[in-house]
Amino acid sequence: MLSLRRSERLCEIRKEESPNKNVKKEEKKEGKEREETCSTNKKRKRKDIKPNKKDKEVKRTKENYTKKKAAKSEDGETKVLSVFNQRILYYLKLENKPERVEKKSRKTKITQDMFAKRLSNITKYVGAHVSISGGVQNAITNSLFIGGNAFAVFLRNQRRWTAPPLDPKNIEAFRENCLQHNYASKFILPHGSYLINLGNPDQEKREKSYQAFLEDLRRCELLGLTLYNFHPGSTVGNCTKEQSIQHIANCINRALKETSNVTCVIENMAGSGNIIGSRFEELADIISRVDDKNRVGVCIDTCHAFAAGYDLRTNKAYEETMQEFSRHIGFQYLRGMHLNDSETELGSLRDRHANIGKGHIGLEAFRLIMNDDRLNEIPLILETPIGPDDELSDYHKEIELLYGLIGKKSPITTNCVKTHITEKNKAKRKSKKSK
């Protein structure tokens, strides 16, 4: 009995001494929380002692923008400004500093001061073949840059059959610019596509050429133009010249019926291959077969005429050529001229244009042209080679040169064709070697 009582008593003592299970759990939780708080405190201390670079930058920017300094305004009053506002003032209102200048736009405005001077009260209307890049209305601007009193253009891409229609806004701008700058339609000579061949004996191919030809005439009407210059065509070796001439005349008659007021201006050719129009007789034959003689004309290209055997270099030779033109065609049909020197010799049958006075024709022929009253009141268009960088200045120089020949009576005997051609050949050889 005593032993049982003792054991019970010992168990009670042990229970009192040993803590309760719930108490132990609470103590464990408190221990974990203490450890966590200690670890966080340690981390915070580490951040304070060794802050990151990002923290440094944030602190610096905050400090810089929160700092305030006193700055005197123009009125003398003091204002407290942040560093950020001071920087703005530095660029805008600091003393002894000019205000910010706005950057110039890349697109420069075209003004009349940029245009070359055009001669007035003249009988010779000299110009050049100019670009319509960006819109047909830009042809007038390009002509004004070179001081041209006449100009020629391609109404579309001359080496493609199809082309998008003209923009109505560009048509209106073209008409307005012509009126504003006194470009009459009789001094504007648009050029036809190189692909057109109205003399082709193949009916399907000739019809394709005719549709392109008719489209160009209708474009002329939209723009208010009255002249259209084109190459007559070729036999392509499949028919006689007489048959080809008849095809050309038939196409002209057909087009004149489908249009109202545009004159078809036939250009003389150099004569290579099966080309029609190298002789004045062939041009006269085409005209004789056109029904409406009031709407057909001729354009003389000096380089083409020289290559075909018509000499222009001396007063005597020039007069013989002009007399032959008058006898076969007549000056009443002359609607324009292309002024080009020739890289090839007389009768070469090769179409190689050269700059004025720098070819085998020479400057004397152009002096005779500029002083010939039979060539008044028609467009005299340059189609000479131009530099790759600045075509406008090249044309401007040649226009000044041609106008400078008016009134000169003494013949010009200087000929720089040899030096010019040798220099050109040397440049070609160098370019080939470099390639």
Automatic annotation (TrEMBL):
<dbReference type="GO" id="GO:0008270">
    <property type="term" value="F:zinc ion binding"/>
</dbReference>
<dbReference type="InterPro" id="IPR013022">
    <property type="entry name" value="Xyl_isomerase-like_TIM-brl"/>
</dbReference>
<comment type="similarity">
    <text>Belongs to the AP endonuclease 2 family.</text>
</comment>
<feature type="compositionally biased region" description="Basic and acidic residues">
    <location>
        <begin position="49"/>
        <end position="72"/>
    </location>
</feature>
<dbReference type="InterPro" id="IPR036237">
    <property type="entry name" value="Xyl_isomerase-like_sf"/>
</dbReference>
<dbReference type="GO" id="GO:0016829">
    <property type="term" value="F:lyase activity"/>
</dbReference>
<keyword id="KW-0862">Zinc</keyword>
<keyword id="KW-0227">DNA damage</keyword>
<dbReference type="GO" id="GO:0006284">
    <property type="term" value="P:base-excision repair"/>
</dbReference>
<keyword id="KW-0479">Metal-binding</keyword>
<keyword id="KW-0456">Lyase</keyword>
<feature type="region of interest" description="Disordered">
    <location>
        <begin position="1"/>
        <end position="72"/>
    </location>
</feature>
<keyword id="KW-0234">DNA repair</keyword>
<feature type="compositionally biased region" description="Basic and acidic residues">
    <location>
        <begin position="1"/>
        <end position="37"/>
    </location>
</feature>
<dbReference type="GO" id="GO:0003906">
    <property type="term" value="F:DNA-(apurinic or apyrimidinic site) endonuclease activity"/>
</dbReference>
<dbReference type="GO" id="GO:0005634">
    <property type="term" value="C:nucleus"/>
</dbReference>
<dbReference type="GO" id="GO:0005739">
    <property type="term" value="C:mitochondrion"/>
</dbReference>
<protein>
    <recommendedName>
        <fullName>Apurinic-apyrimidinic endonuclease 1</fullName>
    </recommendedName>
</protein>
<dbReference type="GO" id="GO:0008081">
    <property type="term" value="F:phosphoric diester hydrolase activity"/>
</dbReference>
<keyword id="KW-0378">Hydrolase</keyword>
<feature type="domain" description="Xylose isomerase-like TIM barrel">
    <location>
        <begin position="146"/>
        <end position="402"/>
    </location>
</feature>
<dbReference type="InterPro" id="IPR001719">
    <property type="entry name" value="AP_endonuc_2"/>
</dbReference>
<dbReference type="GO" id="GO:0003677">
    <property type="term" value="F:DNA binding"/>
</dbReference>
<dbReference type="InterPro" id="IPR018246">
    <property type="entry name" value="AP_endonuc_F2_Zn_BS"/>
</dbReference>
<dbReference type="Pfam" id="PF01261">
    <property type="entry name" value="AP_endonuc_2"/>
</dbReference>
